[in-house]
Amino acid sequence: MLARLKSLFPNGQLEVLTGLTVALALVPEAIAFAFVAKVDPLVGVFAAVIVCLVTSLFGGRPGMISGATGAMAVVMTSLVLTHGTPYLFAAVVLAGVFQVAFGLLRFGQFVHLIPLPVTIGFVNGLALVIGMAQLEQFKTPTGWLQGSALATMLGLVGLVMLVMYLLPK
Predict the structure, then answer these.
(1) Phi, psi at residue 139, to the nearest 5°?
(2) Greatest alpha-carbon span in the chain
(3) Among residues 10, 34, 35, 86, which is most buried (max CB within 10 A)?
(4) How confident is the model at residue 115, as a pLDDT?
(5) For all residues of the chain together, what is the average pLDDT?
(6) Phi-psi category of 67—alpha, beta or left, where left has phi over 0 and alpha has psi -120 to 50?
(7) Which residues contact residue 85 at a Cβ distance below 8 angstroms, ignoring those fewer than 6 apart?
């Protein structure tokens, strides 16, 4: 399939199309994680642009992409609530310094030592935390949604779950 696509788009056009696709998918993801982290959506978009730019300039592989992650959004939520948005920038820069240092020290080779149950447990815990953060969408300033607003919200959630479950990738 990849060979067929490369024949349709010679001279690097496939890479440009791939980059545009990733960029279009990254915008709603960055905005969603900004909501989870309780920061302005523009902060999420700027952070995603910077992360992608740094990854593309200093990444280890051609075509490497990066973007916002749920793990960072969950950690950053408590940081922003406790200390405010200015500390978010310092924490992200420090995380970047750690990543560069780990890359230079070739620590990536040790990832295979992490047991699969630990990885699965981490991802499941992350899913629970992100799911709990989404419950805020069912609240109003006076309390929980009720009546037709609650029915509409539950209907939309059910529709999205149905689409994700029934439609092929």
Answers:
(1) -110, 155
(2) 58
(3) 34
(4) 92
(5) 78
(6) beta
(7) 39, 40, 43
